[in-house]
Amino acid sequence: MVQTSPLDRQAILQRARSFCEPFRIGNGEGFHLAQVNPSETLHLDRHDKKTAEAVLAEGVALLSELQDRLYAQDRWALLLIFQAMDAAGKDGTIKHVMSGINPQGCQVFSFKAPSAVDLDHDYLWRANQCLPERGRIGIFNRSYYEETLVVRVHPELLARQSLPPQPVADDLWTQRFHDIRHYESYLANNGVVVRKFFLHLSRDEQKRRFLKRLENPSKNWKFSASDIKERAHWSSYMHAYEEMIRHTASNTAPWFVVPADNKWFTRLVVAAAIIDTLDDTLDQLNLHYPVVSDSAREALAAAHQQLLAE
Ligand code: ATP
Ligand code: MG
């Protein structure tokens, strides 16, 4: 683990805040997706890409240090949720941002279409079993939010859920948003800090990335026929995402709407948001190495003496 000096640390933390704050939605009222441009890079342009990479590397080093303390303290867990259209870069972002992290302190789960066993339970059931343990960072690559996205865009999926008679029309989604808000507030009350990322990709950039996957044999495996099918529902998905963010952004569990047309910028913003969260956690949650009690210190001294005497 690379130790950052206090001076560097202050500078990195400030920079991290400046990169993530513009994209943080803590109150979704009146939110429109159009407020965030998928190709936004703040004041950085392509020539600053190297600078951005350096900032990301510094950030990753600090992140590893903060994670080490989270792990040692063993009280709080951090849950990072990633949602996006296909090819928005979820996998790559997770890989880059978490590259400096101790694998023991990190758990990643990908949520695909639910199994028969999953469907025999309420929709939060499978997610609940994958929550990070105290001291860990948990990553959800897709999540229970699919229940307000793909299921909303394809109502036939609801029919498979054997639910009791449903509220009509939009009331079902209102109910799900309400339940999710409460669930996340419950998690916060129990020491799970939740941060949610929507990687906001433009339709044009998705087309470019799909074409690359189709034209480059080494990328073919990333393409699936269903990707094109979902693309055809683009505007329904955007509506569902907008609604989801409006109704489930909160100060305890904010959404970050991250511009995703430039991968280097996406990674920077996500790393910044995680660092900023852990830094907040340092203050609010008093994240620190466990304090050794007087009696434990005496026991350590005795063990020390015993070893020296051997
Ligand atoms: P990704 O598309 O996330 O990169 P992948 O291509 O490896 O991953 P897929 O087989 O495409 O995996 O699985 C993800 C699919 O599962 C998505 O289309 C998503 O909408 C669907 N899915 C996830 N959760 C649910 C859910 N609760 N109900 C229905 N479908 C879901
Ligand atoms: Mg897929």
Helix content: 40-55%
Overall 3D geometry? globular
Our estimate of the beta-strand percent is: 5-15%
Report strand order across the widest sheet. 1-6-5-2-4-3
- If you consult CATH, what is the topology? Rossmann fold
Task: List the ligand species.
Answer: adenosine-5'-triphosphate, magnesium ion
What does the radius of gyration come to?
A: 21 Å
Going by CATH, the homologous superfamily would be P-loop containing nucleotide triphosphate hydrolases
Q: Note the gap between the termini.
A: 32 Å
Count of individual helical segments: 13
- Series of H and E elements: HEHEHEHHEHHHEHHHEHH
- Major β-sheet profile: 6 strands, mixed
- How many separate domains? 1
CATH architecture tag: 3-Layer(aba) Sandwich
**SS class:** alpha/beta
Structural description of this entry:
Helix 1 crosses helix 2 (49-73) and helix 3 (90-97) packs across helix 12. The chain has one domain (6-309): Rossmann fold, CATH 3.40.50. The two termini are 32 Å apart. The mean pLDDT is 90. With 310 residues, it is α/β, with parallel strands linked by helices. It has helices spanning 6-20, 49-73, 90-97, 116-119, 125-128, 150-153, 156-159, 171-189, 203-215, 225-231, 234-248, 263-284, 294-309, and strands at 24-25, 77-84, 106-110, 137-141, 192-200, 255-259. It is globular, with a radius of gyration of 21 Å. Bound molecules: adenosine-5'-triphosphate and magnesium ion. Magnesium ion binds at residues 86, 224.
